[in-house]
Amino acid sequence: MRRFIIMGSAIVSAAIAVPAGAVTISDPAGDFLSSFSGTPSGDLDVTSFSANYDSGLSLFKLDWTLAGNVDPAVAGLYAIGVNTGTGAAAPFADIGAPNVIFDQVIAIQKNGSGFVTGPAGGLLAADAVKVAGNMISVSVPQSLLPSTGFTPLNYGFNLWPRTALGGNDLISDFAPDNATIKASAVPEPGSWMLMLGGFAAIGMMTRRSGMRARRAVLS
Asked: Which CATH number fits domain 22-186: 3.30.470.20, 2.60.40.1190, 2.102.10.10, 3.20.20.70?
């Protein structure tokens, strides 16, 4: 029994050490900014947003959902501000979001094309953006978002849909509101195997312990 406890504790400790999955922030539906001068529509209203970083691939993966399906026939795009360290731009104080700071921007069109601004920015690969109904997923190589002081897991992200490029009155929503979120680490394949193997071992030991207990009762 003592051996079971020690082995179980070691496996659980190893599993806890594995980085957690993405933290998804929720954003209320219908919370269009009071400063928004455009026509409210579901695909300009963010309901969730998450950011992941895969160190093995040096890749950021951003995912969000909207209150309605993406309609490419209606004007609009999605800007993701990224603070890679300097956080130089903070232009939204006049619309109630002074804490949305960034130094590089990812811009995603409703048709699935996208680009990154900044010192190493450029067009995203043709398959980097996935649009499916009210969900959008974007993969961005770290090479397009070079650090200006932060490590990748300290980068800050904020998503804001807008009807077009221009003034702040064209922004419909912020996710998160007046803040940024950090990317979560994607567990390495070896870590996943450690967790799965650990849970399998715990299950096997539990079954053996139960069988021994039943035999003791029957004997």
From this structure: 2.60.40.1190
